[in-house]
């Protein structure tokens, strides 16, 4: 029985997703990594850096290594 690495599992999941969801998934993964996250996810998932960056923008995660906070409106 073959052992599937986390990298391979992420790639397999990414391949099952529609394009928009694939971008969001890649962007979310990249934002969770420190400096170089976009390049690493791009390389690991075989998608362009531009696609990963677009996914980060679409999901509101524009700065790698940070987790967004929910803004609350005050009256």
Keywords:
mainly alpha; 75 residues; globular
Compile the SSE list and pairings:
Layout: H1 6-16, H2 19-31, H3 37-45, H4 49-59
Description:
There is one protein chain. The model has no long low-confidence stretch (mean pLDDT 80). The protein has one domain (6-59). The chain has helices at residues 6-16, 19-31, 37-45, 49-59. It has 75 residues and is mainly alpha-helical. Helix 2 (19-31) packs across helix 3 (37-45).
Largest sheet: none
Structural class: mainly alpha
Discrete helix count: 4
Low-confidence stretches: none
Dominant shape: globular
Distance between the termini: 59 Å
Please indicate the percent range of residues in DSSP E strands (runs of 2 or more).
under 5%
Radius of gyration: 14 Å
Give the helix level as a range of percent.
55-70%
Total domain modules: 1
Mean pLDDT: 80
What is the H/E string?
A: HHHH
Number of beta-strand segments: 0
